[in-house]
């Protein structure tokens, strides 16, 4: 049986975690958490120790992402799904336009479609594995798309829609922020969760917001009834005090702060993006030269540097993933709703590029012995 196949230790990566989120947490992050645990864990999040942690994380993210003057890092509870709900109240004034190339881009469009106080959204949708960019549309006040579609491994550039004016650009960067180059001036709300690139737990969202986005939030929050837990103005006000509206997962904050500090100490965004680029180059070149594999995303310009999806032909990818897991190499399974014979590989900065090369050797070994 395939789950009894033993991969030689000489082939295995130093760390077998390749999840697309939650992602690999470095041991050094855990050590940093233990070092400061007595000052931040089990204490009030309204007091200086935790507020200093939030302040360090906010300032670190602003530095890492190159936030222009006037942009603010806002933090809220509930992860990206909660942010979509909140954005429907206070960032979409009447109608949004959405680019959809996978599961996660579609979710925000669905939120807007179901909101009774918004007009029907304009949706540009393409087949999974390809990318689509928005065009100007009459009556739209916000353009929304996903920088990195985690379900398919498609990356889409972040740049303002050609010909647009005062409309907001809302970019889901959940699995891209911190590992893909970005000019934040091209976005008004660049939002993400910490369980991907930042190697932390879920349950929070962060957003780099432009002055225009902050103004839209202030205006709409004054005009609409919004539940307090989804009110982005409440999030803005609390973030300016380096806190959250209700009790946050402090461990999540601490792990993310340690990851941001690691990135900055080693060279910032260019360094972090370079690690993911090196890993993805290894993966895609292997997939292209191997007889039974091919990158799911055909256009190299659209291939994600952080989440690689690889199709298999003549080899059962599910059996490969099962055998890898039995050997301590985990979370290579494909996105469940795609239903393809493929593997999905997370290549965030915490993953050693050499480990991606080792992973491909392990896959070849398993495929040969199936």
TrEMBL record:
One of the protein's GO biological processes: pyridoxine biosynthetic process
Essential cofactor(s): pyridoxal 5'-phosphate
Keywords: Amino-acid biosynthesis, Aminotransferase, Cytoplasm, Pyridoxal phosphate, Pyridoxine biosynthesis, Serine biosynthesis, Transferase
Top-level taxon in the UniProt lineage: Bacteria
Location of region: Disordered: 1-23
Domain Aminotransferase class V residue range list: 39-330
Pathway(s): Amino-acid biosynthesis; L-serine biosynthesis; L-serine from 3-phospho-D-glycerate: step 2/3
Name used for this protein in its record: phosphoserine transaminase
């Amino acid at each position: 049986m395939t789950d009894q196949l033993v991969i030689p230790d000489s082939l295995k990566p130093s760390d077998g975690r390749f999840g697309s989120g939650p992602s690999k947490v470095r041991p050094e992050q855990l050590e940093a958490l233990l070092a400061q645990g007595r000052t931040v864990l089990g204490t009030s999040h309204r007091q200086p120790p935790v507020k200093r942690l939030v302040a360090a994380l906010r300032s670190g993210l602003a530095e890492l992402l190159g936030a222009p003057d006037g942009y603010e890092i806002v933090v809220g509870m509930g992860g990206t799904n909660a942010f979509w709900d909140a954005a429907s109240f206070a960032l979409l004034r009447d109608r949004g336009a959405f680019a959809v190339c996978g599961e996660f881009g579609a979710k925000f469009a669905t939120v807007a479609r179901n909101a009774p106080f918004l007009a029907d959204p304009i949706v540009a949708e393409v087949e999974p594995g390809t990318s689509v960019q928005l065009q100007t549309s009459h009556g739209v006040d916000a353009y929304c798309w996903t920088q990195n579609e985690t379900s398919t491994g498609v990356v889409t550039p972040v740049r303002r829609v050609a010909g647009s004016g005062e409309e907001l650009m809302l970019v889901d960067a959940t699995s891209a922020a911190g590992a893909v180059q970005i000019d934040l001036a091209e976005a008004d709300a660049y939002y993400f969760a910490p369980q991907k690139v930042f190697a932390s737990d879920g349950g929070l969202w962060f957003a780099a917001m432009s002055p225009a986005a902050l103004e839209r939030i202030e205006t709409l929050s004054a005009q609409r009834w919004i539940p307090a837990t989804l009110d982005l103005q409440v999030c803005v006000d609390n973030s300016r005090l380096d806190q959250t509206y209700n009790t946050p997962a402090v461990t999540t904050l601490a792990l993310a702060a340690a990851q941001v500090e690691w990135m900055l100490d080693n060279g910032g965004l260019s360094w972090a993006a370079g690690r993911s680029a090196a890993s993805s180059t290894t993966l895609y070149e292997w997939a292209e030269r191997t007889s039974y594999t091919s990158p799911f995303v055909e256009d190299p310009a659209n291939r994600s540097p952080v989440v690689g999806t690889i199709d298999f032909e003549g080899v059962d990818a599910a059996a490969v993933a099962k055998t890898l897991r039995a050997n301590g190499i985990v979370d290579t399974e494909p996105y469940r709703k795609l239903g393809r014979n493929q593997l999905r590989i997370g290549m965030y900065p915490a993953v050693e590029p050499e480990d991606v090369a080792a992973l491909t050797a392990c896959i070849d070994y398993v495929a040969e012995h199936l």
